[in-house]
Amino acid sequence: MNNIYDRNHTIEILARIDKLGAHSQPHWGKMNVGQMLAHCSAFQDIASGVSFPKRGWLGIVIGGFVKSAVYNDKPLPRNMSTIPTILFADKREFEKEKELLKQKTDLFQRNGPERCTTHPHPFFGKLTSEQWGICIYKHLDHHLQQFGV
After folding, report:
1. Which helix (H) or strand (E) holds 141?
2. Helix, strand, or coil here: 50?
3. Alpha-carbon distance 56 to 107, whole Å?
C-alpha cells in the first residue's frame, strides 16, 4: 500500500498537486479546487496533531469496523461523507492553498511516523502512525483523482 512516509510516494503526490490549476474542475463532489486544497490541508492538521475534531456518534459505533475497508489498496469511494469541521464552502485563494498543502505534505513526510498524532481519527478512532501514513496518501490521492490529476 502507498504511504506518505515513503519519500517516493510524497514526490508523486507533490507533482500531482503541481498539475492542478486555479480553474481545475472536479469530476465529482461540490468543492472547487481551492476548497479541496484547504480541506486536504485541514486533514493533515488532524494527522499532525494540530487540530482535534470530536468523534461523532456514528464513528464511535461503526468507525472501527469501517476502518478495515479503507486500509487496503482500493481507492476511496466517491462522494463519501467527510469530517464537518474540515469541509469548506467559502472562497479560497488557490495559489495560497496549493503552496500550504505542499508544505504540509512535505513536512508530514519529513517528520515521519514518530511525530504523527496519537489522537484518534474523528471517524475511524485509534490509528497507528502507519495507518495515518496510508490514510494521508489515500486521502490526497482521492482528491487529486477528483480533479483529474
Report:
1. helix 129-146
2. coil
3. 28
Decide: pTM greater than 0.90: yes
Domain boundaries, the chain: 7-146
- Give the tens place of pLDDT for each residue, 93-122: 999 999 999 999 999 999 999 999 999 999
Amino acid identity of residue 42, one-letter, is A
Q: What tens digit of pLDDT does each residue of 6-51 get? A: 999 999 999 999 999 999 999 999 999 999 999 999 999 999 999 9
Question: Ramachandran region of residue 29, left (φ > 0), alpha (ψ -120 to 50) or beta?
Answer: left
CB neighbours of residue 140 within 10 Å:
24
The DSSP string of 57-125 is: HHHHHHHHHHHHHHSSSSPPPTT----GGG---S---HHHHHHHHHHHHHHHHHH-GGGS--SPBTTTB
Question: What residues are paired with 121 via a beta bridge?
Answer: 125
Intra-chain end-to-end CA distance of the chain, in Å: 19
For residue 55, the tally of other CB atoms under 10 A from its CB is 17
Element (H, E) at 135: helix 129-146
